[in-house]
Amino acid sequence: MSLRLSRHLRERMVLRAIPDSLPETIYRDADSHFFDSQTGLIVAVKRIVFQGRERDMALCYTRSGDDVLLVTLHPLQEGQRERRIESGRWTPYEP
User: Based on the structure, what is the number of domains in the chain?
Assistant: First the structure.
């Protein structure tokens, strides 16, 4: 499997002071994966300590065969994960 980082993700990592290893860690060790019906992307979510707080981080990606493109990564606000599931925007996804 090939993991690639988008230019957008690389820029966000610099802006948000995200460690280089974090996107791959979240992808490989995610607590759950969802399909986002609004963006058409797959979202890996993992609860981690980020900037001194324990919080959910969402890694958005696409997958085509063995090629995975990591698109963006951002912290979720409290309850944001649950609201997106309840609204039907996010549905469970098996990678």
Answer: 1
Asked whether the beta carbons of 70 and 58 are under 8 A apart, the reply is no
Residue range 6-45, pLDDT digits in tens: 999 999 999 988 999 999 999 999 999 999 999 999 999 9
Q: Please identify which residue in the block is written with the tokens 């900037």.
A: 51
- Is 65 a member of any domain? yes
Cα→Cα distances 3→13, 21, 64, Å: 16, 12, 11
CA distance 49 to 90: 23
**Residue ranges making up the domain that contains 54:** 2-76
- Dig out the tokens for 29 from the structure: 């060790």
